[in-house]
Design goal:
This is Serine/threonine-protein phosphatase 2A 55 kDa regulatory subunit B. By secondary structure, the protein is mostly beta strands. The protein is built from three helices and 35 strands. The protein has one domain: 7 Propeller (Methylamine Dehydrogenase, Chain H), CATH 2.130.10.10.
Length: about 500
């Protein structure tokens, strides 16, 4: 069953879902990790699957019941292309977690509230709302299909009881409002109970409307649609710290939007050459500074980062700072330009550092030092000898994301074989964990994984030749203040919590 914009989802008072989602079965599986990324061990709090678009209908049920309760969860081995998760994002408090998929759907999870009877379940997340954000479109002028895939989701800080988020596909950004209702008005004078207008001649008495309690209802409604501003595919959106504007970036341009104006945007970066044959690089990611509303960065396919200040010029074609690491001539190869392309750029929460992810490494840059990064972490250096085969199967063009923890002391990013890596900036230790159902037996400890490059392979190691490149962790998210992480693996969402002993 496909959920449409504005569909309503009913819950009981404890926020448990009454439909159309059902919870996946299976016991949580504890995971262990090496020291260096905090104390304790990582626990698999819950594993959730994106719902399929197909419904199973039982002929014995009445039609109203079938509309609500008969969508089902498809196992990852039967996942369609539309079920693959394409973005993951916590809101500013960490109480909500949103995912978008290639089918254009947004699924929002809400954190389980702690109670006296369930003290240890604070890390669990239940489905809060699901809605269809984007639909497939067709550009008749260019004979071009526009996919419904959700490229990015960004939350706005909560100002009232409702939640707001931005979601984008390749061409269109939408602002969604997610709100709750647990009361309904009754006793209209000009309408009957079914909402139809009454004949004024039949109205002889005046009634005072009252609010009656009802089942808690969550509904998602599109408040703004920002379209027709990008010729190329949107790869990034970022909310400004003034919370009045945001920017959207495609391959060659970055536009600045006001949340209240949908028919006009300001072009703040344009790197399109007069002759497209002279094009040498494209924009790969962009983000606003977390505290300074005039400052933003964007990365390029050449492995460079540009810091721009909108106070200097309305069109920020001239950067304020330029970050680039000189290439080692001894490592020069046919694939150097491809693997140096930056797939993600993130400001630290403090605003002092920038983190970038290229194909093989994660780098941390100090805003005050442009000539080289202050830290470089090898994510999967054992793949350097496999670049030729990775080029042939197009994996070398995969775009991995990277995230900071709440204190900027730990970095997380993904790899292949459903591995994801953590790097502790203080102790310089790192750990490799695997988000896999097969290796997460109930109440069993999952040891950190190690990859063997050559020579003798130990019992607990995995050979680089046996890695599954179809299983990749591209999208991850870290709770803004606690050690809770979300990892997307195909159509599976794994949520881990750092257990403090």
């Amino acid at each position: 069953m496909v959920l449409r914009p504005g569909e309503r989802h009913y819950r009981d008072r404890s926020h448990r879902r009454l439909g159309p989602w059902c919870s996946p079965t299976g016991s949580p599986a504890p995971l262990s990790r090496e020291p260096g990324c905090g104390e304790g061990s990582w626990i698999l709090v819950c594993r959730l699957l994106v719902p399929t678009q197909v419904s199973l209908l039982s002929m014995e049920e009445d039609i109203d019941t079938r509309k609500i309760n008969n969508s089902f969860l498809r196992d990852h081995s039967y996942a369609t292309e539309a079920d693959i998760i394409s973005t993951v994002e916590f809101n500013h408090t960490g109480e909500l977690l949103a995912t978008g998929d290639k089918g254009g759907r947004v699924v929002i999870f809400q954190r389980e509230q702690e109670s006296k009877n369930q003290v240890h379940r604070r890390g669990e997340y239940n489905v809060y709302s699901t809605f269809q954000s984007h639909e497939p479109e067709f550009d008749y002028l260019k004979s071009l299909e526009i996919e419904e895939k959700i490229n990015k989701i960004r939350w706005l800080p909560q100002q009232n009881a409702a939640y707001f988020l931005l979601s984008t596909n390749d061409k269109t950004v939408k602002l969604w409002k997610v709100s709750e209702r647990d009361k309904r008005p009754e006793g209209y004078n000009l309408k009957d109970e079914e909402g139809r207008l009454r004949d004024p001649a039949t109205i002889t008495t005046l009634r005072v409307p009252v609010l009656r309690p009802m089942d808690l209802m969550v509904e998602a409604t599109p408040r703004r649609v920002f379209a027709n501003a990008h010729t190329y595919h949107i790869n990034s959106i970022s909310v400004n710290s003034d919370y009045e504007t945001y920017m959207s970036a495609d391959d060659l341009r970055i536009n600045l939007w006001n949340f209240e104006i949908t028919n006009q945007s300001f072009n703040i970066v344009d790197i399109k050459p007069a002759n497209m044959e002279e094009l040498t690089e494209v924009i790969t990611a962009a983000e606003f500074h977390p505290h300074h509303c005039n400052t933003f960065v964007y990365s390029s396919s050449k492995g460079t980062i540009r810091l721009c200040d909108m106070r200097a010029s309305a069109l920020c074609d001239r950067h304020t700072k330029f970050f680039e690491e000189p290439e080692d001539p001894s490592n020069r190869s046919f694939f150097s330009e491809i693997i140096s392309s930056i797939s993600d750029v993130k400001f630290s929460h403090s605003g002092r550092y920038i983190m970038t992810r290229d194909y093989l490494t994660v780098k941390v840059w100090d805003l005050n030092m442009e000539n080289r990064p202050i830290e470089t972490y090898q994510v999967h250096d054992y793949l350097r000898s496999k670049l030729c085969s990775l080029y042939e199967n197009d994996c070398i063009f995969d775009k991995f994301e990277c995230v900071w923890n709440g204190s900027d002391s730990v970095i997380m990013t993904g790899s292949y074989n459903n591995f994801f890596r953590m790097f502790d900036r203080n102790t310089k230790r790192d750990v490799t964990l695997e988000a896999s159902r097969e290796n997460s037996k109930p109440r069993a400890i999952l040891k950190p994984r190690k990859v063997c490059v050559g020579g003798k392979r130990r019992k607990d190691e995995i050979s680089v030749d046996s890695l599954d490149f179809s299983k990749k962790i591209l999208h991850t998210a870290w709770h803004p203040s606690e050690n809770i992480i979300a990892v997307a693996a195909t159509n599976n969402l794994y949520i881990f919590q750092d257990k403090v002993n």
